[in-house]
Amino acid sequence: MIRRTIHSTDIAVSSLGLGTVKFGRNEQVKYPSGFDLPTDQEIIALLDLAQEQGINFLDTAPAYGISEERLGSLLGSRRDDWVIMSKAGEDFVDGKSRFDFSPCAINESVERTLLRLRSDRVECLLLHSDGNDLEILDHSGAVEALFNLKQQGLVRSIGISTKTVEGGLRAIELGLDAVMVTYNPWNREEEAILDAAAKSGTTIFLKKALGSGWFGKEDESGDPVEKALRFVFAHPATTSAIVGTINPKHLCENCETMRQIEQG
Question: Could you confirm whether 31 is annotated as catalytic?
Answer without folding.
Answer: no
